[in-house]
Design goal:
By secondary structure, this protein is mainly alpha-helical. It has 9 helices and no strands. This is Phospholipid/cholesterol/gamma-HCH transport system permease protein.
Amino acid sequence: MQSRSVVRQFWDDHPRRSVDTLGRQLAMARELTVGVVLAILRGRFNWREFVRQCAFMSSVSAIPTMIVAVPIGVVVSLQVSMVIRQVGADSFVGAAVSIGVVKQGAPLVTSIMIAGAVGSAICADLGSRTIREEIDAMHTMAVDPLQRLVGPRLVAATLVSVMLCGFVVFVGFAATYGFFVYVQHGTAGSFLGAFVGFASSNDLLLALFKSALFGYFTAIIAGYHGLHARGGPAGVANAVNAAVVQSALVLLGANVLVSQIYNTVVPNQVM
């Protein structure tokens, strides 16, 4: 009997609570998505808050993204070229860049920046409003905080994620090209030829699509934890920590799932 009570207590404290949280987040995502679409169609969307959030999210994530994207491009060029040169295939470094940076590197860097910088900012802002009882005041005035506060942040996070991914692709490609050509003294023509031969517009569209999903998921998760923050400043800190950790896990899992589905449906082809 005692062992059963221990197992039941563990289930109530951890797995069951996690499942309940996931269910509430899915319900919130459905309600928020439908509400945002209807608000845009009816001309009631808060575009001013959307623009303000886009500017804020870009300011907190652009520089860290660039700082992370450059080393990733250099590391890809260095490690791949060392292996490829051992088999005498120097001309395929550009192909490795198309796979490593465009398909995987850019979405992964974007997911890290979105979960760490943007997600924490959304959760901290909404969490501080929650503990100051601003959210309760909005409910009292019959104002939906989901549509008023979370909706613009959802659309802004999705758009900024796509822009960050494109930025990472450009910076990563430039860093890899510069390191391969000017530091490792490779041939620019072979690099570009292999890149064009292996890369395609579908690869870029895949990266942008994954980034849009990352921004959407992060806004939902961060918004949920921010609106459910309890216990003063310490509760906000715990909510931010939970939002960042869950966002990182969800985004990495989504990246693997989407990549696997894409590789199954659209196999790599050399032009």
